[in-house]
Write a structure and sequence with these properties.
With about 425 residues, this protein is of the alpha/beta class. β3, α9 and β4 form a beta-alpha-beta unit. α2 packs across α3 and α2 packs across α4. The radius of gyration is 22 Å and the shape is globular.
């Protein structure tokens, strides 16, 4: 017998189509994202940036130390509470520094990276109907023997040149190279593909198909500690990178497993998880994803199996100009840099191969975000704003900044004094 039990299904919200999800009550993508902020959210972003700058955690342009879409992820995760968003943001900055996350991604061994990629959610090379990257995770491959060997290799083999304070186990650090790939490669790539409904909104999310078929209760139990530890760190330091999780192939005992897992999630994250029965899989996925982008094993047309390299979206193949003999993205970490004239993005392959650092230009694509009209408008409006700022006395400018900082500091202190914190429980990738 397969499929979720009645109790399990009741614990999960009903699925909305891609077109209706988020359309009601201003909740969900693209609402709360850059270009779709209500006045209160705009004000929260302004206060957040002001306070971060006051604390020395943010430097305004040009270019800013952190882009607006990244800051908005922390605000959405903390329900637009600036004080709580600051706590999570600063904890993340401290964690990144303590574990040399940028060095990890730039110097990780390509084989070590691929070993991690084969254990965790894999980008299919495709997107959902809104242009959000689509990932597949088949949990049955994450058995105790494989995980044990993976953890052993993490302790003994060369992984990267990153130095760590030891607070995060080495066996988990490679996972976060994959999260860096999501935020530094897949999401920017999808942002600059123009054939999507909200092309003016940057992509900061992912859609995930999680296949739990063929997994025994014992295997779930053996993976519990590993997955909980990984999800705790992912939730804390990569907030709001998940849009939907579709769980497929749930066995009859999954209600027991769901009882463990749902404790890691807050209500908002639970609302993003849908456990599908066998007859719900195809129609539900097709409401979010075009058939040509759904893997064949789930009723679609895409020839993609677990462990495969991404099967690239035809739009990517159309717009990419490949270099140095490349015709596909190589294994290992990748990131994008803007050309000096701001018209194209260049894909750089980093990491190490045989402990030699790699910095290969793989391809370039047209830079389509932000739209050129918005860029021009911003340039035109910046000058009068700058002139107005120059007209303020130092006392007036600092006074306004101090007022915001005082408000947030007071709230942060009150939170710490009472010990209350509405931070969400651990999730796989909230």
């Amino acid at each position: 017998m397969t499929g979720p039990t009645a109790d399990t299904a009741a614990a999960v919200h009903p699925v909305k189509s891609a077109s209706s999800a988020g359309g009601e009550h201003g909740i969900g993508y693209p609402n709360g994202h850059l270009g779709h902020l209500n006045p209160e959210e705009e004000e929260s972003l302004r206060k957040f940036k002001t306070y971060l700058e006051e604390q020395g955690a943010y430097k305004p342009r040009p270019p800013p130390s952190h882009d607006d879409q990244t800051l908005l992820r922390f605000l959405r995760a903390r329900r637009w509470d600036v004080a709580q968003a600051y706590k999570q943001f600063q904890a993340t900055e401290d964690w990144r520094k303590a574990n040399d996350i940028n060095v990890l991604y730039d110097t990780i061994d390509s084989e070590a990276y691929d070993q991690a990629r084969r254990l965790y959610p894999q980008w299919t090379g495709r997107r959902d109907k809104r242009g959000i990257p689509l990932y597949l995770f088949e949990i049955r491959h994450l058995d105790s023997k494989t995980v044990s060997q993976y953890e052993k290799d993490s302790e003994t083999a060369f992984t990267s040149k990153a130095k760590t304070d030891g607070s995060t186990p080495a066996k988990l650090l490679r996972l976060f190279a994959l999260y860096e790939n999501l935020t530094r490669f897949a999401q920017p790539l999808c942002t600059h593909l123009p054939d999507r409904e909200h092309a003016h909104v940057p992509i900061t999310l992912s859609t995930n198909i999680v296949d739990v078929s063929g997994v025994s209760l014992r295997q779930f139990w053996n993976l519990k500690a590993h997955m909980q530890a990984a999800s705790t760190l992912a939730t804390a330091h990569y907030p709001e990178t998940l849009d939907r999780i579709f769980i497929i192939g749930a066995p009859y005992f999954f209600s027991t497993v769901w009882g463990w897992i749902k404790r890691w999630f807050d209500p908002i994250t639970v609302s993003k998880i849908f456990i599908l029965s066998a007859n719900e899989v195809k129609p539900t996925l097709e409401s979010f994803i075009h058939p040509q982008n759904i893997p064949k094993q789930y009723g679609g047309e895409l020839d993609f199996k677990w462990g495969d390299k991404p099967t690239l979206d035809p739009t990517i193949q159309k717009v990419a100009v490949w270099e140095k003999g490349y015709s596909d993205f190589p294994i290992g970490p990748l990131y994008w840099t803007m050309t000096e004239d701001g018209t194209r993005l260049e894909c750089i392959a980093s990491g190490t191969v045989d402990q030699k650092e790699r910095r290969d230009k793989v391809c370039s694509i047209p830079a389509t975000w932000p739209p050129r009209t918005e860029t021009k408008k911003t340039e035109e409006t910046d000058k009068p704003i700058e002139e107005a700022v120059k007209g303020l006395s130092i006392t007036e400018g600092e006074g306004a900044k101090d007022k915001v900082a005082a408000e947030i500091s007071e709230k942060t202190a009150a939170t710490e004094a009472t010990g209350t914190d509405d931070r969400a429980p651990a999730t796989v990738a909230a």
